[in-house]
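hiii, so i know i said id send this last week but things got crazy w the move. better late than never?? heres the sequnce for the chain we talked about at the cafe, plus the structure i predicted for it. fair warning i was half asleep when i ran it
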Amino acid sequence: MKHDLSLRFCIWQYEDVTHEEITSTLGLLPYKVYVKGEHVYPQYERLAKDSGWIYGTPYNNPDDFVTQMDKILDALEPKIPILREYAEKYHCEFSCAIFINNKEESAPRIYLDKRYNAFIREVNAIFDVEIYTPDLDDEEE
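okay and structure toks below
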């Protein structure tokens, strides 16, 4: 089973704007939105701690990290002035989730190139990586 990697750009912790306004201002459709105090998913009891606007693709994306980053930057770079304003008021980040599904395959490559670095300097966002080992955790039990 191949590893999964999902990269997204997120805007968190806003209360004076709606996700509809963010969508309209950026002219981009989010993959997912969270509304503070509402259910994260209808079937779970967990409530969203903060409002969040997430741009990216669903899990199980077949693209590698560089391809995903290029697609996100293609959409976001023209929006840098707007994103800079959001980053001054809210928490903006690239969120990278890596799902390691077997011990035999090497981990996916994460490479932050000059294009990414220029964008992150302009917008002042952070980069968050989370690594999950769902199948490997089950093997050890």
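btw The chain has a mean pLDDT of 88. thought thatd interest u
miss u guys!!
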